[in-house]
Amino acid sequence: MSLIVHKYGGTSMGSIERIQNVARRVAKWHAAGHQVVVVPSAMSGETNRLLGLAKELSIQPDPRELDMLAATGEQASSALLAMALAAQGVPARSYAGWQVPVQTDNAYTRARIRSIDDTRIRQDLDAGRVVVVTGFQGVDEEGNITTLGRGGSDTSAVAVAAAMKASECLIYTDVDGVYTTDPRVVPEARRMKVLSFEEMLEMASLGSKVLQIRSVEFAGKYRVPVRVLSSMTDPMIPLEEEMSSGTLITFEEDQKMEAAVVSGIAFSRDEAKFTLRAVPDTPGVAYSILGPIAAANIEVDMILQNLSVQGTTDFSFTVSRNDALRTKELLMNQVGPAVGAGEIVFDEAVCKVSIVGIGMRNHAGIASSMFRALSEEGINIQMISTSEIKTSVIIADKYMELAVRALHKTFELDQEK
Ligand code: ADP
Ligand code: ASP
Ligand code: MG
């Protein structure tokens, strides 16, 4: 007997029939003698619907109230799943984040989990029940409901698995694993049977929404074995078959070292680029520009400073599109005048495309193959950033899909290895 955490995403929980299918699958694991904690997302579309209602009332709704609202989606789906399990003869109990409790900090809409008290969950498991814990939410020190950011149920599940030392965290979703790139954009994308934790971390941080980045961070910190697999298969397939399906995130690097140099391609439209023209090229200018941005809790991603021409330089950086409005206000009203910048240019029609692979550590020239492939498609590179296992470029938004397909081909990711 082992303790397993299952996570089901919005599509997997998307209708009563699908919830019944989830219950069948969970019942199968329970009947095989496993202790199961299930972490569901809200039914698909529900979180967007709720946040949309809030936007009808205010352009910038109070984040505390947003969390109070958004958390209801998971409360509903969790209760429905517990009922579906009971209807199939499986004793089950659902809990909201605050009831567990899942303690978080108080950063509404993007809270971080601090601790999870597993006492109540264990009591239920020991009494033979399946425990359903709402994804995406927690409670701060003062008892306010918080949420963990979009896609946060992945993080809830991995954090519960870490806290309870579960033997595996199974992330059931609408694809059958992690692919070389998003199969919705490149139909030739291939599923990877294993993927190193570091590569998954890069893929997630560079825009592959298949797992929320914080869930991967948790998995790394607590060494939680995570498998991404399909919830769309027959729920009654044998356990052994299920356990060897999908993609396992592995901490063993050695087996991957011989494998492909580039493992996957990630992309993100969540980018906004700012350029301050003709800023004085003097010591401290980067700090004068980015200091106030950091102080406003806005994360800067890529930075580019041009060579000085007659004592001035152009300074560009990117932020997440969610922060674009606040960044623009800061630059126009505060930073621009303070540093004596010329024109301030804002561009939201950009995206980031990245190649990722731990094999890049030992191979030179990978970045240049990337640049060549993009140039052959006539795609202009606006900014570049590299680390040991990834190269990212900022390009015009309209070329995103073309770029991803071209790179997928260049690095032969469509071919069986
Ligand atoms: P869930 O609701 O189950 O959390 P998500 O929509 O958050 O599901 O994540 C699954 C989706 O992630 C897939 O439908 C797919 O379009 C997208 N995706 C993006 N990049 C990848 C990738 N590299 N491999 C697999 N899926 C990916
Ligand atoms: N329901 C939340 C969202 O849509 C959390 C999740 O699905 O993981 O972002
Ligand atoms: Mg998700």
From TrEMBL:
<dbReference type="InterPro" id="IPR054352">
    <property type="entry name" value="ACT_Aspartokinase"/>
</dbReference>
<dbReference type="InterPro" id="IPR018042">
    <property type="entry name" value="Aspartate_kinase_CS"/>
</dbReference>
<dbReference type="GO" id="GO:0009089">
    <property type="term" value="P:lysine biosynthetic process via diaminopimelate"/>
</dbReference>
<dbReference type="GO" id="GO:0004072">
    <property type="term" value="F:aspartate kinase activity"/>
</dbReference>
<keyword id="KW-0028">Amino-acid biosynthesis</keyword>
<keyword id="KW-0457">Lysine biosynthesis</keyword>
<feature type="binding site">
    <location>
        <position position="47"/>
    </location>
    <ligand>
        <name>substrate</name>
    </ligand>
</feature>
<keyword id="KW-0067">ATP-binding</keyword>
<keyword id="KW-0547">Nucleotide-binding</keyword>
<feature type="binding site">
    <location>
        <position position="184"/>
    </location>
    <ligand>
        <name>ATP</name>
    </ligand>
</feature>
<comment type="pathway">
    <text>Amino-acid biosynthesis; L-lysine biosynthesis via DAP pathway; (S)-tetrahydrodipicolinate from L-aspartate: step 1/4.</text>
</comment>
<protein>
    <recommendedName>
        <fullName>Aspartokinase</fullName>
        <ecNumber>2.7.2.4</ecNumber>
    </recommendedName>
</protein>
<keyword id="KW-0808">Transferase</keyword>
<feature type="binding site">
    <location>
        <begin position="7"/>
        <end position="10"/>
    </location>
    <ligand>
        <name>ATP</name>
    </ligand>
</feature>
<dbReference type="InterPro" id="IPR001048">
    <property type="entry name" value="Asp/Glu/Uridylate_kinase"/>
</dbReference>
<dbReference type="Pfam" id="PF00696">
    <property type="entry name" value="AA_kinase"/>
</dbReference>
<dbReference type="InterPro" id="IPR002912">
    <property type="entry name" value="ACT_dom"/>
</dbReference>
<keyword id="KW-0418">Kinase</keyword>
<dbReference type="Pfam" id="PF22468">
    <property type="entry name" value="ACT_9"/>
</dbReference>
<dbReference type="InterPro" id="IPR005260">
    <property type="entry name" value="Asp_kin_monofn"/>
</dbReference>
<dbReference type="InterPro" id="IPR036393">
    <property type="entry name" value="AceGlu_kinase-like_sf"/>
</dbReference>
<feature type="binding site">
    <location>
        <position position="74"/>
    </location>
    <ligand>
        <name>substrate</name>
    </ligand>
</feature>
<feature type="domain" description="ACT">
    <location>
        <begin position="355"/>
        <end position="417"/>
    </location>
</feature>
<feature type="binding site">
    <location>
        <begin position="209"/>
        <end position="210"/>
    </location>
    <ligand>
        <name>ATP</name>
    </ligand>
</feature>
<dbReference type="InterPro" id="IPR045865">
    <property type="entry name" value="ACT-like_dom_sf"/>
</dbReference>
<dbReference type="InterPro" id="IPR041740">
    <property type="entry name" value="AKii-LysC-BS"/>
</dbReference>
<dbReference type="GO" id="GO:0005829">
    <property type="term" value="C:cytosol"/>
</dbReference>
<dbReference type="GO" id="GO:0009088">
    <property type="term" value="P:threonine biosynthetic process"/>
</dbReference>
<feature type="binding site">
    <location>
        <position position="179"/>
    </location>
    <ligand>
        <name>ATP</name>
    </ligand>
</feature>
<comment type="similarity">
    <text>Belongs to the aspartokinase family.</text>
</comment>
<feature type="binding site">
    <location>
        <begin position="173"/>
        <end position="174"/>
    </location>
    <ligand>
        <name>ATP</name>
    </ligand>
</feature>
<dbReference type="InterPro" id="IPR001341">
    <property type="entry name" value="Asp_kinase"/>
</dbReference>
<dbReference type="GO" id="GO:0005524">
    <property type="term" value="F:ATP binding"/>
</dbReference>
<dbReference type="GO" id="GO:0009090">
    <property type="term" value="P:homoserine biosynthetic process"/>
</dbReference>
<comment type="pathway">
    <text>Amino-acid biosynthesis; L-threonine biosynthesis; L-threonine from L-aspartate: step 1/5.</text>
</comment>
